[in-house]
Amino acid sequence: MAATPVEALAAVEQSSESQSTPSARTRSTVASLRWGEPTMVFAHPGQADVHPVGVVKLEVAASGRRAALTAMWWSGIEPCTLLDSVLVRRDGSTISITVREGSPPNAGNVACIDIALLKGTLVDLGSLEPGSYLVRTTEGDARPVSLTIT
After folding, report:
1. What does the pLDDT read at residue 34?
2. Which of 40, 75, 87, 150 could form a disulfide linkage to 98, CB 3.0–4.6 angstroms apart?
3. Do 5 and 35 contact (CB within 8 A), yes or no?
């Protein structure tokens, strides 16, 4: 049975109090958490203080030669933190993405609640030639994913 987020957090806190490295049970509990559904967001180019964010999960899909991916990351809430853009770079059979966020340039000194939100965005990879591709992020711990176009 998968642990709830509260149970996993308690296991991590208990482990960090008793030892400097998490136990195998704690690692297993944390690994068993489900991602859930991200809040889907869309790019708003022109943000201030734009910076890359750490992507935690990538999911790819293809239909014929057309491919797309969903990138997911943890971030703050809108309007304090907005998706500015997603950079896509192809080098041979490797496709690298960089998700970039910022704040509205006219936000001023807005008070923002300190809460994490799992965000996701859909990225169109366009039409690809037949072959195998590796899709990865330039920032974050998301595992690279393979994509085959036939």
Report:
1. 52
2. 87
3. no
Model confidence at 124: pLDDT above 60: yes
Cis-peptide into 79, omega within 30 deg: yes
C-alpha torsion sign, points 87, 60, 143, 25: positive
Token pair for 92: 């041979």
CA 124, CA 71: separation in Å to the nearest integer? 11
Residue 114's pLDDT is what?
85
- Name the DSSP class of 145: E
Residue in the block written with tokens 């176009």: 149
Q: Can you give the length of the chain in residues?
A: 150
The answer on pLDDT for 21 being more than 60 is no
From CA 68, how far away is CA 54, in angstroms rounded?
Answer: 19
Q: Average pLDDT of 32-51? A: 85
Strand-strand pairing, 131-137 and 94-103: parallel
